[in-house]
Write a structure and sequence with these properties.
Strand order of the largest sheet: 1-2
Number of helices: 4
Structural class: mainly alpha
Largest sheet: 2 strands, antiparallel
Shape: elongated
Length: about 110
Amino acid sequence: MDDGLIESLVESIKAGEKYGRTWDESVWELAKNDAFKKSRKVVRKSHMKSRFRTLQKELKGFNELFNKSGFGWDYMKNAMTASAACWDELLSDNVRSYSTFLLFNY
């Protein structure tokens, strides 16, 4: 479902259907249809909006981690990379572990 949602929203941005922080209502209908095509599950608009907010939070956390010194990206594995020392420092700060954090949609 996430793939369909993300692809629909990206296409809608390219088509100019996002106004500031809001989306045109037709965008959610298209996203719902795209998600159904990809996952074969019927999804309500409220669920799509909720999932979008969750993806935004995940992206924010990813960006915070990615901007820390010593972290990189492995394009072959779609995974974050860092030395063991970087992970140890991060984990010692009681931050959620991202050592196995995979991002298939980014």
